[in-house]
Amino acid sequence: MKKRVSFWDILAWVVLAGIFIWLILKVSGIINTPALVESAPYFGAVYIVGWAMKKLDTAVDDIKGLKNFKDATVSEINGIKSNCLVNHTKIKNIR
Questions:
Q1: Separation CA 25–CA 66 (nearest Å)
Q2: Distance (Å, whole) CA 71 – CA 75
Q3: What is the pTM of this model?
Q4: Which residues contact 15 (CB under 8 A, 6 or more apart)?
Q5: What tens digit of pLDDT does each residue of 37-93 get?
Q6: What is the pLDDT of residues 10-26, one digit of tens each?
Q7: What CA–CA distance (Å, rounded) separates 73 from 70?
Q8: Which of the listed residues 48, 65, 84, 91 has the most CB atoms within 10 Å of its CB?
Q9: Would you tell me how many other CB atoms lie within 10 Å of the CB of residue 12?
Q10: Contacts (Cβ under 8 Å, ≥6 apart) of 44
């Protein structure tokens, strides 16, 4: 099953790459910026953390849904087993 990549996923990876490139250029001394501009990558990092938390929350919801589906399926299978046993017993009694 192929999952479609959302715009927000792409944006998060672009921001992460931008922070990484900025960090390399800053450490190497190529970029000398004022303090206000220097704080921009930190805001990007906060965005990345929010994106990761949203993805984690979505994964937790998906897992809960799968557990509920599993429980419903097991209950349905047990119900079918019970019905088969009852029907099989009735057929034996008829003979």
A1: 45
A2: 6
A3: 0.46
A4: 44, 47, 48
A5: 777 778 878 888 888 888 888 888 899 999 999 988 888 888 777 776 666 565 555
A6: 888 888 888 888 888 88
A7: 5
A8: 48
A9: 19
A10: 15, 16, 18, 19
Distance, in Å, from the CA atom of 43 to the CA atom of 49, rounded to the nearest integer, reads 10
When computed from its CA atoms, the radius of gyration of the chain, rounded to whole angstroms, is 28
Q: How many residues does the chain have?
A: 95
First and final CA of the chain: distance in angstroms? 50
